From TrEMBL:
Gene Ontology CC terms: bacterial-type flagellum basal body, distal rod, P ring; outer membrane-bounded periplasmic space
Cellular localization per UniProt: Bacterial flagellum basal body
One protein family per Pfam: FlgI
Chief location category: other
A Gene Ontology molecular function term of the record: structural molecule activity
Domain of life, per lineage: Bacteria
Species, as recorded: Henriciella algicola
Record's protein name: Flagellar P-ring protein
Length: 370
């Protein structure tokens, strides 16, 4: 392994951030706030999928599937009372969808379908007409159509291969809106902007940007997560006012935060992450296992056989030279990461160094490990 930390201070100090990263990026107001009253609503329904190729629910483990099928057939005028129905091409599913704000009658929605029984796959199935209800138990849409499954489950004698989840799928434009949510947006006298990431600085910048664009103090910051806009002194509908301000550019105050994904080895850090003066020591640890078997021979002309006796030796030690690097206070973590990358340090080792610096109190940022 390379003497990483002996060269760390020199490499980190020698690398500077590209000019493109020096300027603060700007974004639109609409991308960082939600408007009170303009929201989505979740829908859910219980349905039946038919047409499966022997991969449906078993009646023994999913008796509700048989009850649902019997009820559906009776509604269609088919009398199955007293009949022993044991189909294997039917599965009970839960259907979910999201109703957008201001959705109108006849609009279509994408839906997701997931098995709730012991079905092996929903591939090739068709969802039968299913009502979708909201939190108030009212029906807002109906769903039906052929299911698109991305997962694969293949079985053979003594082998099985699975990729993805074949017991869930989707139906693009599989639901149609049948009931609208009543809401008169243009009757409002004020607008409430809710920040998705509450922050005092960002809220104040939104207030200043809106007031400068309109030319009067109509916006004020209620708290770090809310900016109110008074519409009484403005001309035009609330929709027109919102359309005129939602595309205004602002600079978002990003908190100093580091996110480490240990599974993929990904490290994401903000530009404002800083480190204090700190000394870091790291050494290589090696584990060496040596097998030296011993053969035991019987005496000459004696009955017996040769026996191999295992002899193992395990050595745990430290190889290479332990190096200590002292980092000045003006070195940013981005420069540190750039220096580690230049030296070929793995993401796992970077994560260990970052966690150790955080534990030592030298890293000034929120650390999130996933």
């Amino acid at each position: 392994m390379k003497p990483i930390l002996a060269l760390l201070a020199l490499a980190a100090l020698a690398i500077t951030s590209p000019p493109a990263l020096q300027a603060d990026a700007q974004t639109r107001i609409r991308d960082v706030v939600d408007v009170e009253g303009v929201r989505q609503n979740d829908l859910i329904g219980y349905g039946i999928v038919v047409g499966l190729n022997g991969t449906g629910d078993s009646v023994r483990n999913s008796p509700f599937t048989e009850d649902s099928l019997t009820y559906m057939l009776e509604r269609l005028g088919v009398n199955v009372q007293g009949e022993d129905i044991k189909p294997d091409n039917v599965a009970a599913v839960l259907v979910t969808a999201t109703l957008p704000s201001f959705a109108r009658n006849g609009s279509t929605l994408d839906i997701s379908v997931a098995s709730i029984g012991d079905a092996e796959s929903l591939e090739g199935g068709t969802l039968v007409l299913t009502p979708l209800k909201g939190a108030d138990n009212e029906v807002y849409a109906v769903a039906q159509g052929s299911i698109v499954v991305s997962g694969i489950d293949v079985k053979a004698d003594g082998a099985r291969a699975r990729r993805g989840t074949p017991t869930q799928g989707a139906i693009p434009n599989g639901a149609r809106v049948e009931r609208e949510i009543p809401y008169q947006f243009n009757d409002r006298n004020s607008l409430v902007l809710a920040l998705r990431e509450p922050d005092f600085t960002t809220a104040a910048r939104i207030e200043d940007t809106i007031n400068a664009a309109i030319g009067s103090p109509v916006a004020y910051t209620r708290d770090p997560g809310t900016v109110d806009i008074d519409l009484r002194s403005l001309q035009g509908s609330p929709s027109r006012v919102l359309a005129s301000i939602e595309n205004l550019p602002i600079e978002v105050a990003v908190p100093a935060r580091i996110v480490i994904d240990e599974q993929s080895g990904t490290i994401v850090l903000g530009k404002d992450v800083t480190i204090s003066r700190v000394a870091i020591a790291q050494g290589d640890i090696s584990i060496k296992v040596t097998e030296t078997p011993v053969v035991s021979q019987p005496n000459p002309f004696a009955d017996g056989e040769s026996i191999v006796l295992p002899r193992s030796q395990i050595e745990i030690g430290q190889t290479g030279t332990r190096n200590i690097a002292t980092l000045d206070a003006n070195v940013t973590l981005s420069q540190l990461i750039a220096g580690l990358n230049a030296l070929g340090v793995s993401p796992q080792e970077m994560g260990d160094i970052i966690r150790t610096m955080k534990a030592a109190g030298a890293l000034h940022a929120d650390l999130i490990v996933q």
